[in-house]
Structure to design on (184 residues):
């Protein structure tokens, strides 16, 4: 007989034996009605039965069924368990590394926010500061700051500053500011 035909015949026989639905009973006495094996692994078999599906470990499979489904070789089971444990460990390590990267990114964003808040915080008013309302909104011109240089803040800068200041406030500070605004 041709080797290719032999392989096909063996696969057909295995598929037929796996697909047959009959009752399946474990060593513990648990019985699965209309069960068919849907997956064979070195550490057990997965069956589909009238109540759903379940994986049955080798310890609960009879010797006859272990031989019938060609599963539960202790060496293969140990190698499979080690491979599965290594895969889980790799996945957990990848998750931890991803979480660390996300934390570092979060810290960078927080640092940038703090830096933007510090940059947008105006210097203490110095002598010669004037505040004008222009067609484009408030405009502050002042003398002071670093080495007596003139400092100008336009409307956009003031909006960014106000947003940064509001974000930096605690809920209590926001409530106090809201109450103060209601009084005025």
């Amino acid at each position: 007989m041709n080797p290719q035909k032999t392989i096909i015949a063996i696969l057909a026989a295995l598929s037929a034996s796996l697909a047959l639905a009959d009752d399946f009973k474990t060593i513990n006495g648990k019985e699965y009605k209309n069960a068919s094996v849907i997956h064979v692994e070195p550490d057990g078999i997965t069956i589909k039965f009238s109540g759903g599906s379940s994986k049955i470990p080798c310890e609960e499979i009879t010797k006859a069924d272990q031989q019938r489904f060609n599963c539960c070789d202790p060496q293969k089971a140990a190698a499979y368990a080690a491979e599965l444990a290594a895969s889980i460990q790799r996945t957990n390590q990848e998750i931890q590394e991803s979480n660390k990267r996300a934390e570092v990114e979060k810290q960078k964003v927080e640092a940038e926010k703090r830096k933007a808040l510090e940059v947008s915080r105006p210097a203490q008013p110095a002598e010669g500061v004037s505040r004008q309302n222009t067609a484009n909104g408030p405009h502050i011109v002042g003398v002071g700051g670093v080495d007596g240089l003139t400092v100008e803040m336009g409307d956009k800068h003031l909006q960014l500053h106000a947003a940064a200041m509001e974000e930096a406030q605690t809920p209590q500070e926001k409530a106090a500011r809201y109450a103060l605004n209601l009084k005025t």
Residues 121-183 form one domain. Residues 125-129 have pLDDT under 50 and may be disordered.
